[in-house]
Amino acid sequence: MRHTISALIGIGACCFATSGSAQKIDWQVFAEPFVSSAHAQTIDWQKVDDTLGRKPAVTGDVHRYGFPRTDLTVALDGVTIKPALALGGWVAFKPMHDGVMAMGDLVLLESEINPVMMKMIANGLEITAVHNHLLGASPATFYMHVAGHGDPVKIATAIRDALAESKTPLKTAAPAAPPPAIDLDMAQLDQIIGVKGQANGGVYQFNVPRRDPITEEGMTLSPVGPMGVAIGINFQPTGGGKAAITGDFVLTNDEVNPVIMALRTHGIDVTALHSHMLDEQPRLFFMHFWANDDAIKLAKGLRAALDKTATTKS
Predict the structure, then answer these.
(1) Checking DSSP bridges between strand 203-208 and strand 215-216, what pairing results, if any?
(2) Among 170, 152, 165, 163, residue whose Cα is nearest residue 92
(3) Predicted structure pTM score
(4) Where does 252-294 show beta strands of DSSP type E?
(5) How far apart, in whole angstroms, are the C-alpha atoms of residue 299 and residue 273?
(6) Which tens digit of pLDDT belongs to each residue from 44-78?
């Protein structure tokens, strides 16, 4: 995505230079909401949908496509993990003045990592992270974060061709049965976490935004949930009021160890700490976690960790 800088310089020279001298350019103008909103109207989203073989969830100007690993049966601590808990790969497209910014997080088996990576690189996409989110899961799953900038159909084609090197389902199938009910006190969970959760595929999910804006190469990453920069917390009921929890905290450097202490003090395992992006501001760290215990008890532990971060609370 760094090559966008040279493209912007060329555009700026044409648009802002005056006779004999160039004026000082405010590059932030390219990140203004009206730029991406206007450009969104010119994108043929149907072609993107057709290329990726699925419909997106649309929030604001962001089109987010899900690639859940419904083909895998992954177990951890006796819990069979639902795709919405920890196996939900995705790619989000956000319009920019000369195309789209694409960001994603793909779920892969170990044997799939390098074939998918090579295809991504060959088609001009960037790999921004490869790592685990869970510990001790069988089979082990890994997570490849990708980024790109340019023509949305070309990027969609690159993603589709790369995922074809894995066993990720490339055609969406109708659900065999309605998702199970969330057997948890969702109202109390909402109150403790401080935002309204949403049921998805038998999992109760929260997106907790940070107060500070997050940018990538001058573009504000919003809405934060679809762009993968909100704190994500997922509860999967495991019976008797218990739940398996996982997700990731989005943290600045000074928040990392206070959040570790809060999670461990409340019996929640920290399973990974790493970056997801290369050029974001402020610099962010993503902390993944796991526990399977009383859901209300775990929610209180998560709330204690959230209190160590600069997040919003309704």
Answers:
(1) unpaired
(2) 152
(3) 0.85
(4) 269-274, 280-281, 285-294
(5) 20
(6) 999 999 999 999 999 999 999 999 999 999 999 99
